[in-house]
TrEMBL record:
Sequence positions that bind substrate: 264, 321-323
Reactions listed under catalytic activity: succinate + ATP + CoA = succinyl-CoA + ADP + phosphate; GTP + succinate + CoA = succinyl-CoA + GDP + phosphate
Binding site for Mg(2+): 199, 213
PROSITE patterns the record matches: ATP_GRASP, SUCCINYL_COA_LIG_3
Cofactor note: Binds 1 Mg(2+) ion per subunit.
Alphabetized NCBIfam families for the sequence: PRK00696.1, sucCoAbeta
Gene that specifies this protein: sucC
Residues reported in the UniProt entry to bind ATP: 46, 53-55, 99, 102, 107
Protein name: Succinate--CoA ligase [ADP-forming] subunit beta
GO terms, molecular function: succinate-CoA ligase (ADP-forming) activity
Function as written in the Swiss-Prot or TrEMBL entry: Succinyl-CoA synthetase functions in the citric acid cycle (TCA), coupling the hydrolysis of succinyl-CoA to the synthesis of either ATP or GTP and thus represents the only step of substrate-level phosphorylation in the TCA. The beta subunit provides nucleotide specificity of the enzyme and binds the substrate succinate, while the binding sites for coenzyme A and phosphate are found in the alpha subunit.
Domain ATP-grasp: 9-227
Domain of life of the source: Bacteria
């Protein structure tokens, strides 16, 4: 789950992590009111969308007066902001962060991720702040420093200080930087983050170390114990079909193709999309019904796939382990009847009760094409769509 920058900073503030003062605004009037509360000659007007690269796209403005704040607010609110992460369609700006300006001396990067190779949290830091960390990793990997964190001990003070030294933080600010990193680590662990990224982390003229920007992403699987965070979810930033899928316990991601994919298991989903591409087709979605899907879930999955008008064919690729193929077949038949399906439907079943499942499909009297293998199914659906 993603949240906005201003929400991330509110969470960080709770843990004593230093961030600039600021307020969220939904209208130009609210932006002016927020600016008047701030004790700063310069105010920053920042578009709030779930995407990076806002500054380069014109989504961050420096205002030297309240009139400037109003002008920039009116300019940004309702605008489709296009960044390198939004795609050409962009994202509509519906809210702003009005923040006090900072006397920036230097910019750095600090981030936390889970390293799946070691099953441990890693803190990364670099003196190349304010730029994409991927670019730094590609062009100057020697400028990224890492500390692997023992889950029993947590981030040790010496590790935080070593990172601060390595990124050439001023000597007099090493202590503040280490405290900042320790607080950020606490946020990452206690809030079940999947990513905690501060870019840039800045030092200021009055000797502060603070997060000028902040990005927190959270593990969806942990949201049952993070109820306060679920309230921060901005549904307007998400695809309508993905929202409906999440309500039904389905994993759905919209893509640009025209072949709907329904599978069970993320690995099988990736393989299915790959083999469709191999045969010259384009997947319209990633849809994983999970290991314990019911006929009802399958029906709901069909509805979600068919709500995309670009879908011209569907490939159902199921490996029945815990899930039984006959149950899936019943769901496919029921969904086909309910939806009055008119586009090509190819089904490949393998695993538990596979013969019963195939029999249900064959005896349904519906226009369903059976496939003997994943490759056979992919080739058939691509051919049918073309």
């Amino acid at each position: 789950m993603n949240i906005h920058e201003y929400q991330s900073k509110d969470v960080l503030r709770e843990y004593g992590v230093n961030v600039p003062n600021g307020y969220v605004a939904y209208t130009a009037d609210e932006a002016v009111e927020a600016a008047q509360k701030l004790n700063s000659d310069v105010k920053v007007v920042k578009a709030q969308i779930h995407a990076g690269g806002r500054g380069n796209a014109g989504g961050v403005k420096l205002a030297k007066s309240v009139d400037d704040v109003r002008t920039y607010a009116e300019e940004l609110l309702g605008k489709q902001l296009v960044t390198h992460q939004t795609g050409s369609e962009g994202k509509e700006v519906t809210r702003l962060l009005i923040e006090e300006g900072s006397d920036i001396q230097s910019e750095y990067y600090v981030g936390l991720v889970l390293d799946r190779a070691t099953s441990r949290i890693v803190m990364m830091a670099s003196e190349e702040g304010g730029t994409e960390i991927e670019e730094v990793a590609s062009e100057s990997p020697e400028k990224i420093f890492k500390e692997v964190i023992d889950p029993v001990v947590g981030l040790a003070g010496y590790q935080a200080r070593r990172l601060a030294f390595n990124i050439n933080m001023p000597d007099e600010l090493i202590g503040k930087a280490a405290k900042f990193m320790m607080g950020l680590y606490d946020v990452y662990v206690e809030k079940d983050c999947s990513i905690a990224e501060i870019n840039p982390l800045v030092t200021t003229g009055d000797g502060q170390v603070m997060a000028l920007d902040a990005k927190l992403n959270f593990d969806d699987n942990a949201m049952f114990r993070q109820q306060d965070l679920t309230e921060l979810r901005d549904l307007s930033e998400e695809d309508d079909k993905e929202i409906e899928a999440s309500k039904s316990g389905l994993s759905y991601v919209a893509l640009d193709g025209n072949i709907g994919c329904m599978v069970n298991g993320a690995g099988l989903a990736m393989s299915t999309m790959d083999i469709i591409k191999h045969y010259g087709g384009d997947p319209a979605n990633f849809l994983d019904v999970g290991g314990g899907a019911t006929a009802e879930k399958v029906t709901e999955a069909f509805k979600i796939i068919l709500s995309d008008s670009s879908v011209k064919g569907i490939f159902v690729n199921i490996f029945g382990g815990i899930m039984k193929c006959d149950v899936i077949a019943e769901g496919v038949v029921e969904a086909t009847k309910q939806m009055g399906l008119e586009i090509p439907l190819v089904v490949r079943l393998e695993g538990t009760n596979v013969e019963s499942g195939k029999q249900i499909l064959d005896e349904s009297g519906l226009n369903i094409t059976s496939a003997a293998s994943m490759a056979d199914g992919a080739e058939k659906v691509v051919s049918a769509v073309k």
